[in-house]
Amino acid sequence: MKLSDFRFNALFDDWADNYDETVYIKNGEYEEVFKNYTEILDETVRHISKSKAAKILDIGAGTGNLTLAASKAGYNVIGIEPNVKMRNIALKKAPLISFLPGTFLSLPIDDNSIDAIISSYAFHHLTDSEKEESIKLLKSKLKKNGTIIITDTMYDSTESREFIIKDTYNKNFLALAHDLETEFYSTCKFLNKLFEAEGFTVDFKQMNKFVWILTAKLI
To answer: Is residue 50 part of a domain?
Structure first.
């Protein structure tokens, strides 16, 4: 396991048992981050836009919420999640779905075998250079005309990032402010550049104050 993979795995060891409680929370510091959570997952699935039974990967599957939503929509979905605790929770929810160990940088999947790759609230754990490396790897797993859908906190500009962080401090949301300053959240412009460099066309849709859906389609 790469050092970056280890970091991605260990991050969720202490969060697994309370993850679902956090994402469905209706108040507190993270309310805005997870506002409309169920609708965001459903919209992510709608952006797949493939025929039923298409083969889908959900990377950073966590407790399986997005994986299960894609499965209910009729897709043949595999969850990729490095954390054992998270995978066990996901398997209890969806025992008929395969949840495999792996990360954005290490995938136990054959090349040119996947119709679409989806992910929610996870891509920001990669540094800028890791994001670039990951996009190349994800592309290699896709079939012709494949799609990557990344749902995560993003900024429409560096100015927006600065404003949101300042506003978070003003609200005394110190834990959230710390996350925003120390995690590797990117601007839409930066992500667009990375995907276009690998031959994707990219669209963005904002879902709440923090979260956007990036849809990248291979040309």
So the answer is: yes
